[in-house]
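#lab-general

N.A. 3:47 PM
ok so I finally got the sequence cleaned up, no stray characters, all 362 residues accounted for. can someone with queue access submit it? mine expired

B.Y. 3:52 PM
send it over

N.A. 3:53 PM
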Amino acid sequence: MATRTRKPRTTSSRQSGAPTIADVAELAGVSAMTVSRVINAERNVRAETRDAVNVAIDSLNYAPNRAARNLAGGGDIRFGLLYSNPSAAYLSEFLLGGLDQASRLHIQLVVEKCEIGDHEIAVVERLVAGGVDGIILPPPLCDSRAILDFLIERAVPTVVVATGSPPQQVAAVSIDDCEAARVMTQHLLSLGHARIGFIAGNPNLTASAERQSGYRLALEEAGIAFDAALVADGLFTYRSGLDAADELLSLADAPSAIFASNDDMAAATVAVAHRRGLDVPGDLSVCGFDDTAIATTIWPELTTIHQPIADMSRAAVELLMGILRGKRAGEGDIRHLTLDYTLVRRQSDAAPRRRPRARARA
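B.Y. 4:20 PM
back already:
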């Protein structure tokens, strides 16, 4: 009597509730091997095929199995993101963008605090020794020569974000800080302001110098002589903004507008103006830079330069993945990417008053 061999039972995605790589392949119309290649960031996949697979992955909310990835030879991809930023609003947007893109690409993002001057090399060394595949450096770490030299020397794939002077050996994402600051200063000039105060950012960051250069360039183009007394030093912190605004508004011939190098310092300027009995923007126009959450949580809401912080973080993750793909294919893929900025006008700027500031007090 012939015996019938029973086929082993398999668990489908319908039975387990979790989608499988086969489900992704079927939805995308490709083979499971192709899906595996996309997951492991291999370069020998056509762009349209890769896009179809990624759409299927997102549609099914498929999470690649770690064991399957290791068997495919890809292993887990881990990026390190080091942070040290005095602006909580900036850091929050940056982390959200990076985490979102890392999740889409099924990358593990290892986030670690790293204070400049506080054993920063030990922090970076520990992260590299832990096996990360690359490092992302937002400001102010993007301009740390010690960290950059360490990573370049060890050939660690690196992306710096928002630096005004990226090294050729690392990838970079930024905006044109000089041009953005020039546009904002031109905007204030177009409203009729001739005495425009400027609060500079941290002198250790290259973007600070770029923004001040844009401010000076706009004045020069308008035929207005640069006045060093109208520039106050800041550190991109709210506290430093308070001190800088006090300095500018204590001048005998105080400015009718103040352009701060970031939103935190601009918000501090608004607070100092209110404390002195000045109306913003009636007595004093105030503008910022970055367009972080604080720009719309104070009154009046800030006119500012929108820097696409979350998009810059997403782009950094993409660039780092591109470097890894290039290394696997034996190619170099170091790119310096410049994103667009936007001048966002809100309620904190206006034409200067044509009458004395009646309510102003020392």
